[in-house]
Model the fold of this input.
Amino acid sequence: MQDVALHRFSLNRIAPNKYSRGMNANVFSRTNFLLLKPGRRLTALLLLFVGMGLAIVTLLLPAAPVIGQVSQPGLTLHSESRNEGNSGITGYTVTATLDHASATAVTGNFSAVAAQFAAHPATGATTCSGDADFVVQNHVPFTIPANATSVTFIVFVCGDTTIEYDELFSMFVQDLVGGQCKTCSAIGVINDDDSGAALSINTIAVSEPVFTLTQNAVFTVSLNHPTPLTVIVNYQTNGNTAQPNSDFLPISGTLVFPPNTLSQSINVVVLRDGIREPDETFYVQLLDHSGADVLEYNGFCTIHDFSLPLISGSFNLSPDNAQAHVGVPLTYSVVWTVPDGQVWRDLSTIDLRFENGAHTPFSVRWNQSDNTFSVCEQGAKGFGVNKAKGSGPGVHCSPPVPIESGDILETGLASIDLFHSNVTGSGPTGRDVTLNLEVTFKQPAAGKTFGVRLAASNDQGNQDPLVEAGHVAVIP
Done:
């Protein structure tokens, strides 16, 4: 069998030691390798693998740079944006820069041509005539001298007074010698500086809906004059003192004005929250836009609180003007009615107040949710709830007492007998209600005249203004 010598890695040149003593150039031949003792055979294999690894690493490492060698400078062509002007030709300066100076000149060719894939490309021509927006340049040679770091090019832009979109053209550098490309393409923007159309949004006011849950606040976005361009503008609502999803529904969107269209509308839904509160505001903001400038970005809406009473109903008191003798029961009938065709708000309470001047000596409240009565006495130190004839200590207002209990509600000036009182209703609960109250005035009320005022509240806790319903004169 022919030996296969492995001379390539010159492992035979390793200095002799107790493992390599006597090895010659053919020590790693297949025959000699097999004659080695097992321990020395393993050592030889390890030395072989180490040598192979060193050779591979040497091949992969890059060559060491030559001392004094400098890499080629990188060139960047910069994008620019300029106004077009109204007439004639304007020089449009474009700059290319090197990231470091070079000991030798850098040369290349510059071009400025129409932007192929732009939405609104500028029109290029050899001269500023007709519809041309700029003068095309193709492979114009340039030189950046040694030790310099920049060069400028002049692109000629054609002025006009046509209302149009901002337009784009492409620029690039080719055939670079002495340098390398970092960014060798750029965009030129010709800004239309003619008197174009401008957008604005109005400020409005609406009343919070009373008989419906919602209503629209309609904003108008207008252009100050017609334009042959398509105008696009984005918008969104923002809360101020009015809160999104509580006072209005937040929205965002895009308006598109076809050519020569002067106005578009934005509808924002205003919500009824049923709370008596100050006027509140929110606004619609105009955002990104094209085809026109913006004169007024924000349109405010003021939401006026309810212009009608919060409770849509009417009272009738009988008797409205009465004389009552001390100790003789007087039956009041209080009728609460909602006219047909009105949207009902859930009734919560009805108050019957007996007033003397600026004071309310006592009042009676009926609570619709649990059909209970309670009484309050202004400035009283005691109040009693009595099921028989006596009276007991109490507080300023009584706890609610079910009308079915037959209790007598006591104040210092009068007592209300629930056994001889009742509540009747027709239609939806709380829509048409009649309270029949038996009131007996006491001796401290003798000689006084009380104004009788009525009020109601809804389930949101809002209360109608008090209604002057009548008077009662107490006779000893």
User: Anything to note?
Assistant: Residues 1-28, 380-395 have pLDDT under 50 and may be disordered. The two ends are 148 Å apart (CA to CA). Helices lie at 30-35, 38-60.
